[in-house]
Each structure stands twice: as C-alpha cells, then as structure tokens.
Amino acid sequence: MLKYIDTHAHYDDDSFDFDRDSLLQGLPSAGIIGVVNCASNIASAKKCIEIAEQYDYCWAGVGVHPHHAGELKDGWQDEIISLAKHPKVVAIAEIGLDYHYDFCERDIQIKIFEEHIKLAKELDLPIVIHDREAHGDTMDILRKYQPKGVVHCFSGSVEMMKELVKLGMYVGFGGSITFKNVKHPLDAAAQIPIDHIVLETDAPYLAPIPFRGKRCDSTLIKYSAETIAKARNIDVETLYEATTQNALKLFPKMSINK
Questions:
Q1: Cα-Cα-Cα-Cα dihedral of 8, 12, 15, 19, to 10°?
Q2: 194-211: b or e for each residue (b if 16 or more CB lie within 10 Å)?
Q3: How far is CA 1 from the centre of its chain?
Q4: Coil/strand/helix, residue 129
Q5: CA 50 to chain centroid
Q6: pTM (2 d.p.)
Q7: Cα Rg of the chain (Å, integer)
Q8: Hey, which bits of 63-102 come out as E strands?
Q9: Residue 258 confidence class, pLDDT cut points 50, 70, 90
Q10: Which of 14, 90, 206, 242 is the most buried (most CB within 10 A)?
C-alpha cells in the first residue's frame, strides 16, 4: 500500500459533523500516515487541536484565515501563542491573503498576515499560506520576512514557484491541479524541484476530478498525485516517498509511524 501525508485539511469543518469519527478512524487503513488540520479562526484552532489529541496521525495548525482577519479582537496574538505551544501543533495556519472575496479590507489582511508571520518566527514554527489572487503582496511579504513554510493550493506561475524555492519555501498542490482549466500550477508542479513539493487535499474543499463539487477527504489525494506524477514523468510511489519526506522537513514537530 502506498502511504502519504495530507499536509492541508479541515476536518473540523461542519460538513464532517455526521461522520467525522468513522472517517478519521478509517483513513490510516487507506494509507494516510499523517494529516495536518489547518485552522480558520480561534474556535477552529481549538477544534483542530482536539482532533489531533484524539488521533495519533493528526496534527494541527493554529491561526486565522484572511476571511476572518477583520473579526480579531485585541489580545488575539496571546491566544495564538498559547495554542501554538500544544505539542501537536506543528504550524501557524492557515494564514495569508484573499483578494477574491471582500470579507476583509486588504490593509487589515496584510497587517494580520504580517503579525502571524512575526509570531511564527518567534515560536520557530512554519506557516501555511493562503494566497488567492494576491500573488504580488504575498511575495512582497515573504521577501520581507523570509519565513519557513508552504504556499498551499498553489495557483501561481512557474516564475513565482522558482522564487518561492529560492526563499526556501515549499509548495502544496491539491485537487485543483486536476481541473481542466488549470495550466500554470500544473506547469509549476511539473518543474518544481522534487524536494520542495508537498501533497494536500484542502478537505472538504477542492475535490479532484472526477469528484469535483463533492466533499473531499484525504483518500482522494491519489488523483492529484497521479496527475502530478504523470506531468513529471515519474511513478506515483516516487512522488509519495519524496513528498512524505518533504512534509516531515516542512513540519519538523510532526512524527509519524510508517
């Protein structure tokens, strides 16, 4: 059986409320040896930690998604720091910029993103970056602070990928890599050095073809992996082995039982 790590999921999401336990209990038998559940806000972060406490192979990221950046109150940094000290927290996540929706003003998003990065550097943790239609500002901030981490659900160009690699960042690819209208991210996945790529699902979102529009879970990562392996002209086993090692380097606090 091929084994792999899903570096980005949201099993705290309400869509899993009716079958979360049975689903998570079954994932290891499908080859999943690690999952990083990334938070969207403070309440989500606490739930991600609860899941990580319940399942040995699950880990947590704590942070505030740009959609929720405008909801933060004074003192939120102290709460993130406290949560981040939990032994199963491996990242400050999910943080970043989203210019597709107008849930929060851009200057506020940038401020909160930068504050998260400062916390991550203080705590010596990697960050997991959400970057939607905000490539320019995202890269400006990464050049400025040079954090450790990954740009998840990569949607940029080959040139952006190359700059991220130079900065020492990892790049995550998930279900969207299988979509028919995707070109630049697939080109990036084909050309990125194999020691800088990680696999993810963003479950329950972005289910790959042929499940697009349905609820995603970690078992569907194989469709993204097959697409990437074909683009790179390598076998899937080689990709799984490389991305597993990359995930462990990206999240050094994570330990897994192979």
A1: 100
A2: eebbbbbbbbbbbbbbee
A3: 24
A4: strand
A5: 18
A6: 0.97
A7: 17
A8: 89-98
A9: low
A10: 90
Residues 89-108: pLDDT tens digits?
999 999 999 999 878 999 99
Lookup result for tokens 């380097």 = 249
Q: What is residue 182's predicted lDDT score, i.e. its pLDDT?
A: 86
Q: What are phi and psi of 254, to 5 degrees?
A: -80, 135
What span, in angstroms and rounded, lies between the C-alpha atoms of 15 and 48? 14
What token pair was written down for 3? 């084994």
Please give the angle made by the CA atoms of 91, 203 and 64, to the nearest 5 degrees. Answer: 40
Specify the CATH number for 4-250; select among 3.40.50.1240, 2.60.40.10, 1.10.1740.10, 3.20.20.140: 3.20.20.140
- Residue 4's Cβ-side half-sphere holds a number of Cα atoms within 13 Å equal to 26
Domain locations in the chain as residue ranges: 4-250
Contacts of 225 (CB under 8 A, 6+ apart): 4, 199, 236, 239, 240, 243
Total residues found in the chain within this entry: 258
Q: How far is C-alpha 128 from the geometric centre of its chain's CA atoms?
A: 5
Quick one: 245 exposed, middle or buried, by C-beta within 10 A (0-12, 13-18, 19+)?
middle
The residue behind tokens 């991600």 is 48
Chain centre to alpha carbon of residue 149: 9
What pLDDT is stored for residue 175 in this prediction? 96
- Biggest CA pair distance of the chain: 50
